[in-house]
Amino acid sequence: MKPPPAHTIVNRLILLTLCGLMLTGSLGLGAVWMRQEISQVANHSRALQVKLEDVERRIDEVNAEVAAAVNPDTLLRRNQAMHLALAAPREAQVVRVGESAELRLAAKRNREVFNVAQVSLDLTNRAPAFQFVTASLR
């Protein structure tokens, strides 16, 4: 049995070196691509954060304007300036609600849905049958 010629060992060594370089290069390109994607996502996230802060700032400004507009002193001044002759409500006319207005109105609106529908008994198998209706808060 003869040993393989020297040039085949050199060819294999060159081929393995080239394969290693290709693998290393592709891993490097993959790492660069991943860093670029991470950077793009971070820039997009930063832009969304700036937009969110701007919207929150504008909401705070609108809330401040609404609070200033519904101030009783401001309402009285506007009443006098527009000559509307409106009167402030008396305490007997004011109804204070202790619970959440949204939940109270939703329960009032959906009252008939939450009532148990007619219960019918099937005489053959004595199993009660209920009508199920789902409701949601809109």
Give the oligomeric state of the chains in this entry, treating copies of one chain as homo and distinct chains as hetero.
single chain
Main pleated-sheet profile: 2 strands, antiparallel
What is the arithmetic mean of pLDDT? 84
Helix content range: 55-70%
Summed up, the helix count is: 4
Total DSSP E strands = 2
Provide the domain count.
2
**Shape descriptor:** elongated
Radius of gyration: 38 Å
Could you tell me how far the N terminus lies from the C terminus, measured between alpha carbons in angstroms? 88 Å
The succession of helices and strands, N to C, reads HHHHEE
Topology diagram in text:
Elements: H1 6-69, H2 72-81, H3 101-109, H4 111-114, E1 120-121, E2 128-129
Organism: Lacunisphaera limnophila
Protein name: Cell division protein FtsL
Tell me what you see in this structure.
- With 138 residues, this protein is mainly α.
- The protein has 2 domains: 1-86; 99-138, no CATH class.
- The chain has 4 helices and 2 strands.
- It has helices spanning 6-69, 72-81, 101-109, 111-114; strands at residues 120-121, 128-129.
- It has a two-stranded antiparallel sheet with strand order 1-2.
- A hairpin with a 6-residue loop joins strand 1 and strand 2 (128-129).
- This is Cell division protein FtsL.
- It comes from Lacunisphaera limnophila.
